[in-house]
Amino acid sequence: MGVFLLSSPAFLVFFSFFTFCLLVDPVLGVTRHYKFDVKLHNVTRLCHTRSIVLVNGQFPGPRIVAREGDQLLIKVVNHVPNNVSIHWHGIRQLRSGWADGPAYVTQCPIQTGQSYVYNFTIIGQRGTLFWHAHISWLRATLYGPIIILPKRGIPYPFAKPYKEVPIVFGEWFNADPEAVISQALQTGGGPNVSDAYTINGLPGPLYNCSAKDTFKLKVKPGKTYLLRLVNAALNDELFFSIAHHTLTVVDVDAVYVKPFETETLLITPGQTTNVILKTKPSYPNATFFMTARPYVTGQGTFDNSTVAGILEYESPLNSLHSSIMLPLFKPILPALNDTSFATIFASKLRSLASAQYPANVPHKVDKHFFFTVGLGTSPCQHNQTCQGPNGTKFAASVNNVSFAMPTTALLQAHFFGQSNGVYTPDFPSSPITPFNYTGSPPNNTMVSNGTKVVVLPFNTSVELVMQDTNILGAESHPLHLHGFNFFIVGQGFGNFDPNKDPAKFNLIDPVERNTVGVPSGGWVAIRFLADNPGVWFMHCHLEVHTSWGLKMAWIILDGELPTQKLLPPPADLPKC
Predict the structure, then answer these.
(1) Which one, of 21, 22, 35, 227, lies nearest residue 116 by Cα?
(2) Is 501 exposed, middle or buried (0-12, 13-18, 19+ CB in 10 A)?
(3) Where is the Plastocyanin-like domain (predicted)?
(4) CA atoms within 13 A on the CB side of 288
(5) Which three-class secondary structure state does DSSP give residue 185?
(6) What are the tens digits of pLDDT across the range 116-149?
(7) Which site in 110, 168, 339, 536 is 20 to 30 Å from 132, CA atoms measured?
(8) Given a cut of 70, is residue 53 above it in pLDDT?
(9) Which segments within 333-411 are labelled E, that is strand?
């Protein structure tokens, strides 16, 4: 199967079909209309046919294409039995929190037969993001790329590529993912793992019955290609490499970075990475695997398999190359648990910190937070046998609070002043009971439960240190913050030392992201300015950990000026 290129005629047809543009102002951008019909469709992978939830019958779903400054109006119509909500992952949603999408946080889900128009404007962002379902495990099949081009007339801070290609990693389950997590939550054990990883929905030739379902990237010699990488997998960080080719990283999470070369990259669920691929100057008489497989730090089971696509050079005219079997080269990926590679790769990511693209990291901090993140346990229900540690149920928490999802959307409760019985504003700013976080685990591994939030005044500058714990084994956790980008000012291993570690913080050119991997057995420090009023979810982007409660929410109060206040809810906001 071939690749769908942004500059192809097919893309232009797609673009004109799904998008209606109304020119408002060349500076402000245009308004683009999309319609997402959420329906069940039969899809076959690994010789298994399943009825899966898709947008517009596409797997992965349709790409959203816009420019910085454009307004997007995306009508989502739910034709399936499941409740649905869509999150526009990484979009800042300045003052438009009603469009952020996490179910029971910024909206009630869209019920069967209902619809909702997500209305937001892309401000100060350009690069690659993605959209996905944000309720239960529906994002296993409901996801697609968001491609944000610079404003017209503004070039990339690197040479313009010949072609641009989205490469979206996912996971395929032969079973229904909704049944997988439902069973796990009922038994208290770990969920069954996926059966394959995918590139643009295709598992590739290393899996049973999948040679025909292989992503092929056809390239010309002597050209540059911008690969827009998205990790939309549910539960796995991934190493990625293309055999005998070097990649240049130029952008992460829709923020430009200082370019650097690498043969392999690491991308966690929730992260995006733009890389430049320079093809070989002449026809190489070979084809090349592009492969991805997991980076694993936890002690649970995981999908220990490899997805492969093929990089294929167009053969010269009047040649016999196309009719002969060419050698196929395979990349060498790091070991499954290569934390050293993960650490070195993360250290290479730096903001451009230029006049045009500054790194506005807060130097003065108003509020300091210290959050432990990790796994724990909760008691087994009476007269039930549970499959978690020592007969308990698996749980996960932030500062030992396992987040209990409300039945009313938090943003609605906040906006209308109806928080009683929905949430409490007493989320702890540091662990209530400190312990040796990365040493011997404590005897008591039980978590507490609650719908607790942090409340901050508008424009508070925040420093947050997130500390991995060894309670049920150290593990890397990709933490995603809705509504904000943040600067990663420091990270290390062992327990964070507030007396020594801040002296080593990078306040000059730290990378700016929306999702960060908390190092296995270590910590990461981030800073951000709370300049976006609303309710903002923060959670581990390993879906199993979110299901177990590794999540919390921030409420940012309105500022004094009209431009610092959350806009009122739209009339079609779904009701619970």
Answers:
(1) 35
(2) middle
(3) 38-151, 164-315, 427-557
(4) 21
(5) helix
(6) 999 999 999 999 999 999 999 999 999 999 999 9
(7) 339
(8) yes
(9) 367-378, 393-398, 401-403
φ, ψ at 318 (rounded to 5°): 60, 30
Q: Which residue has the tokens 């000059």?
A: 508
Would you say 199 and 169 are in contact if contact means Cβ atoms under 8 Å apart? yes
Residues across the chain:
576
Query: Of 69, 92, 48, which Cα lies nearest the Cα of 529?
Result: 92
Sign of the Cα torsion 508, 514, 515, 521 reads positive
Q: Please give the single-letter amino acid code of residue 507.
A: L
Distance CA 340, CA 329 (A): 25
Q: How far is the CA of 4 from the CAs of 151, 218, 305, 329, 388, in angstroms? A: 23, 10, 25, 24, 44
Is-contact 547 91, C-beta < 8 A?
no
DSSP 3-state assignment of 186?
helix
**DSSP letter assigned to residue 98:** G
Q: How far apart are CA 114 and CA 123, in angstroms?
A: 29
Would you say residue 237 has pLDDT above 60? Answer: yes
- Domains defined for the chain, CATH in brackets: 29-154 (2.60.40.420), 158-316+325-348 (2.60.40.420), 367-556 (2.60.40.420)
Determine the residue type at 482. H
The sheet carrying 224-231 orders its strands as 196-199, 163-172, 224-231, 272-278, 247-252, 255-262
- Residue 101 carries which DSSP code? -
What are 509's two structure tokens? Answer: 């050119």
